[in-house]
Design brief:
250 residues; alpha+beta; OB fold (Dihydrolipoamide Acetyltransferase, E2P); Helix Hairpins; 2 domains; 3 helices; 33% strand
């Protein structure tokens, strides 16, 4: 009788063990964008144009919005005028220094006179270099009047409108929220549930009733909640939307 019971129960035990081996854990997650960012500019100004709308996909380098360029163009022009103003004096001081060095080598000029020529050139060269640095900064600020897509992305939200003044003195003002990369599944687990999961671990996922293979990409622990946030890359991800539920087993 015992042998018969063992014989009957053995297949059931093996099936249970196999089931446990293939499904050590399960959880539900949602699809999210792999990359999300709130883009801003390092300069202040007035919004002149908005070139994108929420839901629009754009390629890297596309101008998303731009500030009124006129104040920046004026500052650049002024900086160039200052640099041009200091250039002749600097060139003349350099020529005078070269002549002083020649005369000093022929013992016609004293050390004091040579030192004075060096000081004069150093002062005028410093003024010129400072003016040139102002030109470089003004050119850079002019470039910053355009907010360009840093990667291929989809626009999530515009935070500003045409005519709005943006002040970035203390901290950058968010202008456009974007997302990029691919959709990934994100789940939150207790630390004990993460045992056995590593970066690259294989994961089984189910989206709208269809099975797909995946791999663990990121395991991040939240100190406040005490939970582990797992990011999973899904192979051959079908057409899906952000927020769609995903069932995950491992």
């Amino acid at each position: 009788m015992c042998n018969k019971v063992v014989t009957c129960l053995l297949p059931l035990a093996l099936m249970a063990m196999a089931s446990m081996a293939h499904a050590a854990g399960e959880a539900d997650g949602v699809l999210q964008w792999e990359q999300k960012a709130a883009l801003s500019l390092p300069v202040s100004g007035v919004i002149e144009s908005m070139n994108v709308v929420p839901g629009q996909r754009v390629v890297k380098g596309t101008v998303l919005l731009s500030l009124d360029k006129r104040p920046f163009q004026y500052r650049l022009q002024s900086a160039k005028f200052r640099m041009a103003q200091f250039a002749p004096g600097r060139d003349e001081a350099r020529n005078e220094l070269q002549r002083a060095e020649d005369l000093y080598e022929r013992t016609v000029l004293s050390q004091v006179e040579l030192d004075q020529a060096k000081i004069d050139f150093a002062e005028k060269d410093a003024r010129y270099l400072e003016a040139r640095a102002d030109v470089d900064q003004a050119e850079l600020d002019l470039e910053y009047t355009e907010l360009k897509a840093p990667f291929d992305l989809i626009v999530l939200k515009n935070h500003v409108v045409i005519g709005q003044t943006v002040i970035n003195r203390l901290q950058a003002t968010p202008l456009v929220s974007v997302a990029g990369g691919q959709l990934v599944a994100v789940i939150s687990l207790n630390p004990e549930q993460v045992v056995g999961l590593d970066i690259g671990s294989g994961i089984n996922t189910s989206i709208a009733g269809k099975a797909h293979s995946g791999k663990v990409k990121v395991i991040d622990y939240d100190a406040r909640s005490g939970l582990a946030e797992i990011t999973i890359l899904i192979e051959d991800l079908p057409a899906a939307t952000v927020g769609q539920r995903v069932h995950i087993t491992w």
